[in-house]
């Protein structure tokens, strides 16, 4: 039981730190006015593909359309919302791996 609460505490703290860094670095990028890029180019491709009628309208898009649809929130809610979604999925992956490893004797 103590291990499970430790897991949730670790995941919660790591999510908080990661989301805080996403917001802080996003504000820093805005201050620099695009002179510095700390995001992978693929993330820009995901985000830009939402501006086309279909994701494959962008000539460099080669991913699942689901990624493009998830990134529409970058333009409607918050410009780094997709990064937050990726952070949440990372936390879910950590939890899933923890459950799998816990079953191994």
Pick out its properties.
105 residues; mainly alpha
Tell me about this structure.
This protein has helices at residues 2-32, 41-48, 65-70, 73-76, 81-103. Helices cover 69% and strands 0% of the residues. It has one domain (2-90). It is mainly alpha-helical. Helix 1 runs antiparallel to helix 5.
Element pattern in H and E: HHHHH
Report helical residue fraction. 55-70%
Main beta sheet strand tally, sense and closure:
none
Please tell me the total number of domains.
1
What is the strand tally?
Answer: 0
Classify the secondary structure makeup into a structural class.
Answer: mainly alpha
Number of helices: 5
Beta content comes to under 5%
Q: Which residues form runs of ≥5 with pLDDT under 50?
A: none
Distance between the termini: 17 Å
The rough form would be described as globular
């Amino acid at each position: 039981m103590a291990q499970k609460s430790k897991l949730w505490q670790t995941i919660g703290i790591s999510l908080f730190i990661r989301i805080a860094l996403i917001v802080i670095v996003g504000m820093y990028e805005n201050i620099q006015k695009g002179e510095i890029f700390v995001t992978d180019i693929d993330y820009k491709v995901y985000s830009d593909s939402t501006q086309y009628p279909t994701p494959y309208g962008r000539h460099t898009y080669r991913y699942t359309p689901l990624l493009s649809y998830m990134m529409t929130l970058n333009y409607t809610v918050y410009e780094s919302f997709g990064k937050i979604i990726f952070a949440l999925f990372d936390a879910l992956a950590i939890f899933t791996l923890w459950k799998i490893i816990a079953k191994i004797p």
